[in-house]
Amino acid sequence: MSSSLEDPMIPVPVPDQAPVREGHAPVPGGELYFWDTGGTGPAVVMMHPATGSAHMWLYQQPVFAAAGFRVVGWSRRGHRGSTPVDPANPGSGSVDLRHLLDHLGLERVHLVACAAGGAISVDFAHSHPERLRSLTLSCSVGGVQDPDYLMLSDSLRPAGFDALPADFRELSPSYRAANPQGVRHWLELEHHAITGNRLGQTPVNCITWASLEKLTTPFLLMTGDADLWLPPPALRLYARHIPDNELVIVPEAGHSIHWERPDLFNATVIDFIRRRC
User: Fold this and answer.
1) pLDDT for 1-19, tens place per residue?
2) 91: closest CA among 46, 24, 144, 30?
3) Distance between CA atoms of 73 and 96, rounded to whole angstroms?
4) How far apart are CA 269 and CA 273, in angstroms?
5) Is the pTM of the predicted complex or chain greater than 0.90?
6) Is the Cβ–Cβ distance between 169 and 255 less than 8 Å?
7) Contact 254, 170 (CB under 8 A)
8) Which CATH number is 21-275's, of 1.10.287.130, 3.40.50.1820, 1.20.1270.360, 3.40.50.10330?
């Protein structure tokens, strides 16, 4: 079927993937799986959600590569292809990211983060702003620890929410109604994403409203108008504390914009990155 930016009810077919080099980057106590399209263009590093892995970027990898970027995807510890978190030596996701960038020889990158990948990315932005060209946060709370934000976030989801089916929590009703085949594909990737213990890593920094206000990294902030985790008012609150940001609300999308509305997601992120290179 053909896709359309105007009609989100038309499914978008998964494009053919670009060639990649696969490998493992060493980190203290383990190793991280990655793929890398290579090339000489600006590097874009994909940061997956808690329900994902390096293998979830099927709609982004070939599109960003065709746009001239060097695209890298990786799995955090406990996710497909990477070693599990060692409770005795859990490390930190943002430190693991630094080791990955060093292993690949990447000095400055654009990070594109979805959901839980955002908290690690924001932690990295606090520790290593000099290594970031830009940071895209899609449907991500970004790890903020201020009590008012934590109370708001908790109030949005009733008891038992985490036990609900993953596709209900993370895909919009519009997408589930319009694209049952896409839902099945998303669930297949989700079922294979977590392969070991992924819990126990902690951030390096305490992320607060005050700490966000000191960041100079350009941010693209996105959420779906049907996101149960981060509805538009919560994202607007977040945006008020980011000095340099652009905010986009995606219609008829839930917590997985990159999968539900890849045409709009890709066009928006690529345009933002090109202006921030």
Assistant:
1) 344 455 666 888 999 999 9
2) 30
3) 13
4) 6
5) yes
6) yes
7) yes
8) 3.40.50.1820
